[in-house]
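Page header: ASSEMBLY MODEL / two components / 739 residues total.
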Amino acid sequence: MKKILRVCLLSLLSLFTGCMPTYTLEDVQMIQTIGFDYIDPVNMQTTASLVVYSSTEGQVTIKDEPVVIVAHTFQDFQQKLNKQVPRPAVTGKLSNILVNEELARKGIADLIDTFARSPEVGRNLYIAITEPTCKDILTHRYQITSNITEYLKKLFEQNEEINLPTTNIHEFLNAYYGKGINPILPIIGRNKDNIALTGLAVFHKDNMVYKIPQDQYFIFKALYQDFNIGSYEIGTHELDAQHKYIAFNNIGSNVKVKYNLNHEKPEIDIYLRMKTHLQESSNTKHLLLRDLKKLEKLASQALHKDSMKMITQFQKRNLDPLGYGKIASQQDRKWDEVEWREKIYPKTKFNIHINFQILEMGTIE
Amino acid sequence: MHHFTERDYLSHGYTMLLIPSMQIGVGILGFQRIIAKSAEQDAWISVLFAGILTYILILLMYWFFYYSNQDLIQFHESFFGKWLGKVCNFALLCYATMSAVTILRTYTEVLQTWVFPQLNIWMFTLIFLVVVWYINSNGFQSIAGISLFTAIAAVPMIFLKYYPLQEADLANLMPVWNHSPTEILTGAKDTSITFLGYENLLFYYGILKRPKQSLRYSLIGNTFTLVVYLVSIISALTYFSLGQLSHTVWATITQWKIVALPFLDRFEYIGIAIWMFAIIPNVCIGLWSANYCLVSIINRSKATKYTLPFLIVVVWIICNQFNDRLQINMLNTMMSKIGFAFTHGYILLLVLLAWIYRKVRSKRHEENSSSMSS
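Prediction written out in full:
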């Protein structure tokens, strides 16, 4: 009797499983890309790209449908959006967040907080800054694809593989809440019928303050992280009239940073080792084996010049997107954030040591 | 006094499972932030310290058992006498009940924040407690069996750290030992709370077949916990920056977010659900301990039938008195303080008391035998 009672009670439990609201894929409206534009200090113009499935002749096509709403917060936007769409809007599959440059310069702390806080939002997510308004980017009809979410996501993913430094939401939050590093985000623009990466935005706290042009992606990435893919073209016309440019494929780049721990005369040594395969040169006559050493030297000098120029720019503005403060804090036991930012970093002397190796020159000589 | 039946007795090797299964519970989901507050990148040293301290406390418990030769409930009655002993056991009863409440309510909070904001706590805790009652009503052996689930849930969790470690920066741990001993010890103190759970051995010691031989297995169990905690803290410190970690309430679950499997985009929902299997043995052992206290306080064989359902109802009602983050946080802070005092203060005192107890008893024994011979 007791046993039967027990079994009955336990089997009753299975009846409780349906008590929670469920969300079936067909019954929700997924927001996959969302963009924020600045209107005034209180309001934002929010553009969401909704996924619409339509089937024609048995084939299911995925299309994006932009919706533009003026709201003060993301929550406000979701409520207003729900008044316009037949199914509840959910952010579980959010892939891209776009922020207009104007808004980014004014500060995006509350947006960051919202997305970092929400358990619904995943970590497989990109944030990017847009040069035109987000509305312009998200409402334009592109010939290359009808699904802008996929377009943006693949754009970031494939560029991250090559020259674009890693800039997903985790990297951004890591730098945003961390010490001794300024967060970076990619900037995109629209060029007629295409979306293009145009630079890197550097943030101080939550305000965008500086823009790194896209032709410095490669140098930035080489100094920022180790990677083993990507290609670059160095302009060497100032150094050698015979070689106007050298193009190469990076097959293994490795960077090491050493801080001398001297607070009075701070120096940072950067050791950059790069193994490459030569791709192209403007002067085909000089692509011979005996010229190899000369080419390596030329490339090293040019890389040195470019990276020095970039770092000096950062130092002048007291920005540290490459995270030298963070590296110094790992090496220096007496590191202090304020002292570093105000006294040490601006007067730090950077010594860049480049070891540029051309391993192969292709299949012909 | 509660008498165990033959079927209740358990092989001593089971402490290897019982100890970590009580230690690893909800704490591991978010302890990283609390330790990193004081010890920052040296937090892993704090964890190591706390682990070593736990070894010492386990040894002290066995020292107590060596002197007293019985579990804590029986010792209270034989040392303090019937009434004062019952008062002490009542305090233990409250402690064990509240630890079960804390675990269950904190886990429910995780569910509410991450998965089901609309979750009806009355309903969920009821279902949960029915399962706990079912396991508990079959005696301690089935609890020991269920304890295996903690190990089954915890081992894959170590492997899942593979995903965050791919993006981790080991240099975050540098410079090593850059904090004063006080800061590191403060971190160790905060960690020792997540190691709590071994003290339940004081309750179930009597049920082991050859209890004295279980020491080795208890230490192995604690080693398992230590390894799990070390892996968790190191992966959190290397994956998050310190500022980011201080904003992350449930670092372990946030790390589950990036686990990407081809057929499963968001692992954390599965992870939280699986984690329930690590929570069940926690609540079971807590309730079993409470029940054992209650039975020995009442000391009537007729009443034993009703003590467990009574405790279940009590836990169920108390659980539902805590409604928001603030109250749950308060509950956790309070319980960790009591638990800390219980393990780090009372266990030391117990060794002393048991030593006195043995001295007095052997003296009385001598007197008895000498008076008998004369």
